[in-house]
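Student:
Attend to each token:
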Amino acid sequence: MLFCFIPVTVFSQVSYNFETGSSHGWIQSIDNRWAADSTGPIMGKYSLHHTYDNSETGSDQIGTRLKRLHPESGTTSWSFKIRYGADPSSSNNWAVFLTADNDPSEMHPGGKINGYAMGVDLAGYDDTLRLWKVREGGISTVKSLPVNWQTDIGTATAARIDVERSAAGEWNMKVSYNSVVRTASCTDPDLFSVHWFGVCYKYTSTRDRLLWIDDISVDGFFEDTDDGPAIIKAYPAGRSMLEVFFDRDLTPFSALTGNFECLPSSGMPVSVTADESRKLRIIFPGNLPNKTPCTIVAKNICDADSICADNVSFEFTPAFAGPGDILISEIMADPLPPVSLPAKEYLEIKNATGYGYSLNSWKLITGTENSIFPDSFIGPGESEILCSVSDTGLFSVYGHVIGLKSFPALTDEGRTLVITDDLGNMIHWVSYSRGWYGDKLKSEGGWSLEIIDTGYPFFGEGNWRASVSPEGGTPGKTNSVSGNNPDKIFKGITNVFPTDSLTLIVIFSESVGDPGKLINLAGIGGTGIDSIISCNYTGMEFKAVAEKPFRKGKVYTFKIRAGLTDRAGNSPLRESFRFGIPEAPAVNEIVFNELLFNPLPGDADYIELFNNSDRVFDANRLYLVSLNDETADTSEPVVLSDTGRCILPGAYYTVTTSRDAIINRYYSNADTDIYEVSGLPSMPDDKGHLILLNAKAEKTDEVVYNEKMHFQLLSGFEGVSLEKIRPGFFSPDIKNWHSASEFSGWGTPGMINSAYTEMTGNGNAVVFSSNRISPDNDGNEDVLVIDLSLTGNSNVVTILVFDEYGSIVRKLVRNFYCSDKLSVVWDGTADNASVVDAGIYVILISVYDETGKTVKWKKACAVIR
């Protein structure tokens, strides 16, 4: 009966004075950073000392297990002596974790840890000694002691700290130094799992090796049984590799393959190795299940004291990131001039899932640069700040930091950033640009770009904005622009271009959800597809190989059937795209068709071309230049596209430096035929001279424009484009151009011109586009087109316009030499450029042909005002 009254726990003590010169029983977050050292001991011959000379900023932790300590069963006391040889600050500080529920690798602000710590400047920088509560890595003050470590204790004095906690959560603290005693009391009943006692030391490169601790004791109620070794942590170090951590040193024969099993079964391990005395690395023949709960079971394992355990189990969930699980959530590409943050570039990545992931050997890829992640971990929902190793100290005050030895340059204008896992699988990518800021001032520097809705990681432009934080960015925090912003549109195919007679490059507006489906859903009219492979990590660009060669002079259609979506599940709006084998254009086969050279303030110029042939041309092999007529100098050539792009027969092709501005300004537009280029040739507002060249620098068309070509009754010409009356008309002839109509919105980029007048072939030698003209720039019968179909190839033409009194009001052409075809435009103006009065006008056409005969036609046209 006496044994029935023996308690489960007994009062006991854990103590260390390090006089053996050994730190046995202590585990370090990184090996060989601490030692029981004889350099400047606090007392006796040895103290536990940070001994690592680090050339970089660092944070090192060390701890020891508190086996089966039960603070809820009675009073627990902690005592230790500590000396810090530097002035504390936000970058140089220490904390002693009295209780912690995780091992030393997590004993730092932001770590996966809960517990209580005594320390200075663990958060903040006022040098006050405090009792801190750490919950899920977040830090809050429980009680401030009346001690300023820098001014009261200094760098040469060792202080003794005694802490006592009752079972009810009443805390009493005492600090003794230089015959001075300071005390403080408080109540905080929270109690997390108690597994570890440890030290966290954060330092800059010149403040390492300056922390000593000694004469450590922990008194309290400890469970008076020992069930043998226990698993304290297990996480995957690869698809088929598991690292298992134990609470004590194991005997070598514990590391046998037959001693371990992972359920649901991944097969018997093929190898078990002891990386450390308490850590085993287990490799299985098959992959661990992804994001599925598993249990590792250990049989017949023994510690160094020959205390053994059987069927020790630990449940864990292996997780391997897929596309979008980890995403780039903030980009500081241009930190100068700084607003409040450090004047250094950084990225922020966020874990958008409920699982933690090892980032060891992951890569940040920018162009040809590969930046490799160190051995690091990102927890569920956590964020990590990526920066150069040399800048980690600057950003550590904002949250978790991962320093990359070769952090890439984040160019101000933009670039593509890709994150891959250790196997090279794409996890996330973003191709940012300066235009994403949505704020011209902020785009000039000092402000970060932040993603709005992390639920749509592959929704690019439209899901990013300039930070609205007063600091200029939010590294390590929730984004200041965070909100609901679903991706609802997938534009679909944006380009299909043949690189040779069998191979196509196919580009989508966004990443497709399952690239493997593409081969089964794609087709080409007239031939089949032999293969489709991805060109890069983005899932937007693919190379397709046709079964049969494409022929010149034929237009093909690449099409996808229903079933392909973007990563947000949206079906494509554009499911087909036409293409052909490009050829070199000759003179007048591709021509100027519309010009905006005097845009409204804040808008951009644009140039529209028209394929006036039955052949296909490549915009990447066409160039624009401007000519200075006074000096005969030309500008640098501007290519029409930075990638191969087909201009099909009868197609319009518009280029501008601000596509969005043009689309928003001119509602009569075809946005699929408007393309943005980095620059255009000089286009002065009053007059200019533009030339279109092919790849051999041969002129295919040119136009000399001036503002007098506009309809002169307009109140102003800003924002009004000049349009060809017919695309095939001779571009240098100013009579073939007219102002875009008000009805069309003053411009028609990518569309048929509002001034367009169709040819009506009825077999007659002289054909008028209409029998009336209303020169009011409303887009309806603003001009009269006179089409002549003559005989022979040598004709001299004169066309005169008479009013009803017989007076000549306009000489349209006089003694103009032409072949058998001629089109002449009258815009309703007199020779002095004024608009004629309303009435009936007679147009006299005289033709002197190659036989010496003169033929005349007289036709009437009404002018309506």
